Amino acid sequence: MDCGGPCAKLCTALEAPPVTLWQQVFTVEPGIYTAVAYLENPNKNASASAVPFEFDLYDASGTLLLKQNGTTDIPAGKNFAVIAPGVTSSTTIASAAFSLGNFNWYRPQNSTPLVVSNIVFSTTTTPIVEATIGNPSYTAVGRTNVVAIVYNDAGNAVAASETYIGSVDANSSGQAVFTWPRAFPVVSTACAAPADVMIALDRSGSMASDGRNPEQPLTDVKTAAANFVSDLSSADKVGLVSFATTPSDPLDMPLTTDFSGLKSAIGNITIHTGGTQYTDIADTIATATAELVGAGDLGVKKAIVLLTDGIPTQPVKAGDPNYPATVASGAAQAAINQGINIFTIGLGTDVNATFLRSLASAPDDYYTATTSKSLIGIYNAVSSSICQKQPVRVEILTDTPND
Questions:
Q1: What is the pLDDT of residue 248?
Q2: Are the CB atoms for 334 and 327 separated by under 8 Å?
Q3: How would DSSP label each residue in 113-173?
Q4: With CB atoms counted within 10 Å of each terminal CB, which end of the chain scores lower, N or C?
C-alpha cells in the first residue's frame, strides 16, 4: 500500500514507537494506588488518539494481582504520562508493567501549544500543587488533560495526579489544582536555586586552646564544616579559606562542586607552628569576596560563612587599636554591596558578639556557639538559609488540544 500523499493517517512502520521511560505505582492511601507510566513520543509530526493501554500490577513476590486497562492520547513530539488512578487492592502492590496496544499514527491537526507557569507546591495541611495553564494562541482550546508529577531531590518520582481544565479562551489561562489526601511517603528537600558559598575558618592558635591532640576546638569545627558541606545541594559551588595572621594563599579550596575534595581540604586544616598566630578577618572577607565575584556563577545567591573564636587583631595601624575591626567592617560592607550574604559564627566566650553581628548581612545571620558541640546545629541553620529549600520538584505535563 502506498503510504504517501496528503492523507492524515501515517504509516506506523515509518514512525518510531513511543518509549516508556519509567513505570511506577504510588500509594495514595492504604489499599488505594495510582499507577503511572512516563513515556516519550520521539515523532514530532505524529500523534495518536484513543490508544489502548494496560498496567499489570504485581506484589513484592512478582505475583500478578490485577490488570488496569484504558485508553490514552499520544501528543506529538514530547513526553507524556499515562495514569490509572484509584486502583484498589487488599494486597500491597509493589510494581507495575506497562504496555500499549495497537494504534494508528496521524498527523497532528490544528495543534495549539499550551504554556505552564506559576507552579506552586505547598504542604500546609496535605500536599497541593497549583499551576497556571496559558493559551497564547488566538484560538480557544477545549477540555485539556493535565498531569502533575512530584519528584524528590534525587530525581525520583514520589507522587502523581491528573486533572482536567475546561475550555481556555484565546490569550487567556486556566488554573490546574492537584491534591493528595496525605503526606507523601518519601519526604525530601531540594534547593530552589544553586548558590556559591565560601567557608572561612579560623585556625589561629586559640583554636587549640582546649587540646593539642587532637586540636580542639578546631577538630570539632572541621567536623561541623564538613557536615555543612553535606547539607548543601550538589548544584552549589563551595570554596574554603582558612585564616590566622593572614588568610590562606592560595585558597585551601577554590569554588568547586567536588565536595569530596572540599571535605579533604577541611580535614587538612591545621594550626601553624613557629610563632604566635593572630586573626585577620578583613583580608579573609576580601579574599572570599574576590573568589565569589571572580569565579562564581552569575545570577546565583552568594554567601560567606565565617567562623572565629576571637577578635580581629590584624592588620594593624600604629596609634589605632580599632583598625583591625574597622577594616573588617569595611570589607564586610564591600561584600554586602556586591550582593553577598555574610553569616558569622562566634565560637566560645572570647568573641565580640556585637562586632560579629555587625559584620553579618542581618542581625539574624550571626550565630553564637558557646561550645564547639553546638556547631553542627548552627551550620544546619545556615545551610537552610543559604539553600532556600523547597520540598520537591514538580513537573506539569499537558495534552496539546486538537491533536
A1: 94
A2: no
A3: --EEEEEEEE-SSS-EEEEEEEE-SSS-B--EEEEEEEE-TTS-EEEEEEEEE--B-TTEE
A4: N
3-state secondary structure of 189: coil
pLDDT at 112: 65
pLDDT score of 305: 96
With a cut of 70, which residues of the chain have pLDDT below it?
1-8, 12-13, 109-112, 124, 153-154, 185-193, 210-211, 274-275, 387-392, 400-403
Cβ-contact 374, 396 below 8 angstroms? no
359's enclosing H/E stretch is helix 353-359
* C-alpha closest to that of 46 among 83, 98, 99, 3: 3
3-state secondary structure of 314: strand
CA distance 158 to 24: 9
Cα 331 to Cα 44, 145, 281: the distances in Å are 55, 55, 9
What was the pLDDT predicted at 193?
A: 66
**What pLDDT is attached to residue 142?**
82
CA distance 285 to 174: 49
C-alpha cell at 333: 560592607
Provide the phi-psi class of 110: left if phi over 0, else alpha when psi is between -120 and 50, else beta.
left
Q: What's the CA gap between 345 and 308, in Å, rounded?
A: 6
pLDDT of residue 402: 38
Burial label for 103, CB within 10 Å (0-12, 13-18, 19+), is middle
Cβ pair 254, 262 in contact under 8 A: no
* Per-residue model confidence as pLDDT tens digits over 364-403: 999 998 888 889 889 888 887 886 555 568 899 987 543 3
Helix 323-337 vs helix 281-295: crossing angle, to nearest 10: 20
